[in-house]
């Protein structure tokens, strides 16, 4: 059976450097138009150089794509998977140009983010719109798959990661479960979702995913905190930061932490640096036990999830979800979900 009306699946991700010479050009792509001081870029570049200038994200994406291709074939869906990035090669514009030259007329797009919000959802719409504009009038129709933060396969994969992290500490008493996600400016969170929802779709979805995972893992009490802030100090971002939170937990007598990066689908360099290095080191300074739960992207259920999202379009499979949030994020040709949905926050005058 063919791809039922679609010619390909485009795996749309953030991108990352694959060598030392890539790091600064990559960071310049990420921050273009944002007025980020070069000193900050050099500071972040050091994080990448600590790992040989290579981000794991492209390799992890390719591994996940291979797993999805295998499961698509097993499901009888003839749909090749192609890779395109926002900030580094292979760039989405180049991938779409190649698909167009091969005669693709209609493709599905899987964005590697589970959530709503500008950075988590609408910016992928902008990537699609930009890529189609670069290709021109022959560009294929591009249908973006929906948000999946509350899909049972995502929740169960993350919950098993949390269980395994607790088990690695010997189920010691006094271990606190802490969920993290990428911080964003408070104004961006306030603008996330359609205006009729009252904003804060991003942080509310993170909180709901954490609730669902905790329930699945049998955890009664937990915290939701943030990581990877990069903005100027005068601009409010979602808080508390994970390292500050570990300090606070230590002050309150907590013996250790299990940290689950629920806001990420794979081990981005931010996960490795902010959690496996900075947070782990701070916990060690306090004599606290520390374990970091696995992200969902390397779990076999993640590939199953992507295939199920595809089959919602190719075979009319009913969407599965565990929360009362509306099904959202599925858009065509880069149009937003709704008028005013996740409008990019206006940057303060400098």
UniProtKB/TrEMBL annotation:
Catalytic activity entry: Fe-coproporphyrin III + 2 H(+) = coproporphyrin III + Fe(2+)
Cellular compartments annotated: Cytoplasm
Pathway: Porphyrin-containing compound metabolism; protoheme biosynthesis
CDD domains named in the record: Ferrochelatase_C (cd00419), Ferrochelatase_N (cd03411)
Cited InterPro entries: Ferrochelatase, Ferrochelatase_C, Ferrochelatase_N
Coiled-coil stretches: none
A GO cellular component entry from the record: cytoplasm
Chief localization: cytoplasm
EC number: 4.99.1.9
Record bears the keyword Nucleus: no
Residues at which Fe(2+) binds: 182, 270
Gene3D superfamilies: 3.40.50.1400
GO BP terms: heme biosynthetic process
A GO molecular-function annotation: metal ion binding
Positions with a binding annotation for Fe-coproporphyrin III: 55, 124
PANTHER family membership: FERROCHELATASE (PTHR11108), FERROCHELATASE, MITOCHONDRIAL (PTHR11108:SF1)
Function in brief: Involved in coproporphyrin-dependent heme b biosynthesis. Catalyzes the insertion of ferrous iron into coproporphyrin III to form Fe-coproporphyrin III.
Protein family (similarity comment): Belongs to the ferrochelatase family.
Protein name, entry field: Coproporphyrin III ferrochelatase
Protein species of origin: Amycolatopsis camponoti
Lineage of source species: Bacteria, Bacillati, Actinomycetota, Actinomycetes, Pseudonocardiales
